[in-house]
Amino acid sequence: MIEMKRPSLQFIAVLLLFVAALTSASCEVESTPDPTALPVPTPTPVNLEQLLRDAGAATAGLDTFHFLLEHNTGGTPLAPNLTVTEAKGDVVNPDGISTEFVGTLGAFAVRSSLITLGDESYMTNPLTGAWESVPKEVSPLGFFDPQSGIGAIMTQVVNANLLSIREGEIRVGGSLPVAALESILGSATDGTTVEAELTIDAKTLFLTEAILTGRVTATEPDGVIRTITLSKFNQPLTIVAPQ
To answer: Which of 3, 28, 68, 192 is least enclosed, having the fewest CB within 10 Å?
Structure first.
């Protein structure tokens, strides 16, 4: 039979010291405090009234821009039996406009172009396509002044609310009196409003899109949505009278 030797006191002391060292190291690791969490900065509230004023001034101060007006259904009545469904063109500050528009004249589809230079206005005959000088006061687009119209859109929004800020764009919603749209859409029904959703470039403060929901005139269908898109800001552009 093999006789088991008892561990010496020296061996037991060394073992106890080793266990104590391990325990101390473990406690130090477990008791290491977590890094102090940095506070999340609170976003600065957006002053929407000031934003809209600044954006209106920035957009109205453009030298040139391109615009596109579209409807999800129907169109905008501009004159008896004339309804525009889409218009696009360029604006040169202070008084140059070149526009192409499509729509209906009675039961017929029409396409025409308009150039305005100061008090001079020229329009293509919808039937022949030939350019004709048209007195601005009787032109179906004689009211059309998108430069001042954009400023009116931006500064007359009521009950403005911040929809989102993302990817360099600020989206603002609110209500807009239709009277603010007369220089873009012509005569409107007094006392009515449309819902507006505006997209503003966060860096330049230029208006890039306006979505207008609601009827501007009594003859329009319910639920009409107009989208005005602006682009090609301050690019070199010259508008000349047609030959």
So the answer is: 3
Residue 73 tokens, joined: 């259904």
Distances (CA, A) of 217 to 53, 55, 193, 214: 27, 27, 11, 9
195 three-class SS: strand
Which one-letter DSSP state was computed for residue 78?
E
Give the pLDDT confidence of 202-237 residue by residue, as tens digits.
999 999 999 999 988 877 888 899 999 999 999 999
Rounded to whole angstroms, the Cα distance separating 73 from 113 reads 22
Fold designation for 48-231: outer membrane lipoprotein receptor (LolB), chain A (2.50.20)
The yes-or-no verdict on residue 82 having pLDDT over 90 is no
Tell me the β-bridge partners of 173: 161, 197
Cα of first residue to Cα of last residue in the chain, in angstroms, is: 126
Q: Looking at residues 180-194, what average pLDDT do you find?
A: 81
- What is the C-alpha to C-alpha distance for residues 224 and 38, in angstroms, rounded to an integer? 49
Closest alpha carbon to 207 in 143, 147, 160, 144: 147
pLDDT at 28 over 70: no
Instruction: State how far the Cα of 114 lies from the Cα of 138, in Å rounded to an integer.
Output: 13
C-alpha separations of 202 from 83, 113, 199 in Å:
35, 33, 9
CB 172 within 8 Å of CB 48: yes
For the cut 50, the answer to whether the pLDDT of residue 30 exceeds it is no
Where do the structural domains in the chain lie, given as residue ranges?
Answer: 48-231
Q: Are 66 and 146 in contact (CB under 8 A)?
A: no
